[in-house]
Each structure stands twice: as structure tokens, then as C-alpha cells.
């Protein structure tokens, strides 16, 4: 019943807006421009969150934690390094460097004056 009410209000709003435009004061209120702009920004942010969530599920839950079956992508070297980067985040090595889901180990190499990171990642890649 509430969806009927919301739909009715939307139909009335569209009808009266066209009526208002046709009778024509011709001026657009600043509040209307702000509402349109904020709506477009809100849609862009919402879509970004949705896209990240869609990408997060198979990669993080499937590849890293093995909760989903993602066998075809598990053998891709890039995704194997993403898995290593996630495990590195949960280890005590390198003071728990911040994990970047889709960037993998990029930027972590700068914090590793020795080749300990390379040894850690090679060991993890050989285990997979």
C-alpha cells in the first residue's frame, strides 16, 4: 500500500512539474538545481559502492578466504599476489602494512629494504 502512495506522489509531481513548465514562469529555483546536483552525486557514489561490492565478493571472499568457488581466477599470477598481499596484512610482518584489495603489493616494496617481502610472497605462491 505504501508503494502505491509513493508512486501516486511521484506521478502527481511529474504532472504538476510539466504543468508548471508549460504555464511557464521559466525560472529554475536554486534549491532545484542543488537537488538535481546532489542527486547525481548520490547516484555516482552509490554506483561506486555497488561496483566495489560486486568486485569484492568473488575476489576477497572467494579467492582469499576460499568461501566461494573461483578456481579459474585462482591461478592468475596477479590474483595470487593479491592473495599474498591480504595474508601479509594479517601477519605481523612489516607492521601490518595497509592492504589494498586491487593494488596488491604495490607500494609495499618501498617499505622493504631487504628482500623479505619477496621471500614471503614466493613462499605463499609456492604453497598455492
UniProtKB/TrEMBL annotation:
- Name this protein carries in UniProt: beta-carotene 3-hydroxylase
Location(s), subcellular: Plastid, Chloroplast membrane
Q: Which GO terms describe its biological process?
A: carotene metabolic process; xanthophyll biosynthetic process
User: What's any one GO cellular component for it?
Assistant: chloroplast membrane
Q: How does it sit in the membrane?
A: Multi-pass membrane protein
Name the UniProt key words of this record, in alphabetical order.
Carotenoid biosynthesis, Membrane, Oxidoreductase, Transmembrane, Transmembrane helix
What are this entry's molecular-function GO terms? Answer: beta-carotene 3-hydroxylase activity
What the record says about family reads: Belongs to the sterol desaturase family.
Domain of life of the organism in this record?
Eukaryota
Residues spanning the membrane: 33-57
**Principal subcellular localisation of the protein:** plastid
EC number per UniProt: 1.14.15.24
If you read the UniProt record, what top EC class would you report for this enzyme, in one word? oxidoreductase
Instruction: List the InterPro entries.
Output: BETA-OHASE-like (IPR045019)
Amino acid at each position: 500500500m505504501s508503494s502505491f502512495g509513493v508512486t501516486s506522489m511521484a506521478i502527481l509531481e511529474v504532472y504538476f512539474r510539466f504543468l508548471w513548465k508549460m504555464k511557464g514562469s521559466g525560472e529554475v529555483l536554486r534549491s532545484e538545481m542543488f537537488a538535481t546536483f546532489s542527486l547525481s552525486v548520490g547516484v555516482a557514489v552509490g554506483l561506486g559502492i555497488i561496483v566495489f561490492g560486486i568486485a569484492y565478493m568473488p575476489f576477497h571472499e572467494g579467492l582469499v578466504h576460499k568461501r566461494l568457488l573461483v578456481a579459474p581466477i585462482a591461478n592468475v599470477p596477479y590474483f595470487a599476489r593479491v592473495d599474498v598481499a591480504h595474508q601479509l596484512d594479517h601477519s605481523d610482518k612489516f607492521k601490518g602494512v595497509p592492504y589494498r584489495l586491487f593494488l596488491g603489493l604495490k607500494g609495499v616494496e618501498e617499505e622493504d629494504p631487504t628482500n623479505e617481502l619477496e621471500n614471503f610472497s614466493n613462499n605463499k605462491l609456492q604453497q598455492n
